[in-house]
Amino acid sequence: MALRFRIHPVTPFEQNCSLIWCDATNEAALVDAGGDADKLLALVASEGVTLTKLLVTHAHIDHAGAVADLAEQLHLPIEGPHPGDQFWIDRLDDQSRMFQFPTARPFTPTRWLDQGNEVTVGAETLLVRHCPGHTPGHVVFISESAGVSFVGDVLFAGSIGRTDFPMGNHQDLLDAIKRELWTLPDDMRFVPGHGPMSTIGHERRTNPFVADRRG
């Protein structure tokens, strides 16, 4: 039994949407269905898995733009983000106009998430940690069994998330990375919201924005 995943960039922002699934049950979830819903459904079909829920790290348009439509079309529950992102959910339509994306609709999560919650995908369990700063309600999903985390726009290979959008907070982001991500194992891989994967240990040692010079 294992958690498996495939990354599929979506939207003009090349956001890393992840299809994750439980090998034992073939039950699956999409993490950050930001757009290109037809392509994501084709990905699900190509893997022969059954989509059972949508997971959302935060409610910026490139991470949440297709969530409402997919949830309605397929009658899927939505888990995440943290309630702090209600501001951004309410403004999804405004965001789509601002960035000239297809119209996106607000949604109401079936389940808001908070620090210490768990999310299940089939027989697999993901741990939830609240990592504000990029947005106030940003969460990350951690699979200890697979040694992989889905961190949205908190941390990137060689960089960190922007904090110049409304309700961003640079110090909150730095604190969240050090508190919630640096405590993960060095060999923990992570899927960022954009760009290539990396490991927690590599970023903790070398990331110029948050490197732990003592590590």
TrEMBL record:
Transmembrane segments: none annotated. Residues 14-194 form the Metallo-beta-lactamase domain. Residues 193-215 are annotated as: Disordered. Keywords: Hydrolase, Metal-binding, Zinc. Residues 201-215 have a biased composition (Basic and acidic residues). Its cofactor is Zn(2+). It comes from the Bacteria. PANTHER family: HYDROXYACYLGLUTATHIONE HYDROLASE GLOC. This is MBL fold metallo-hydrolase.
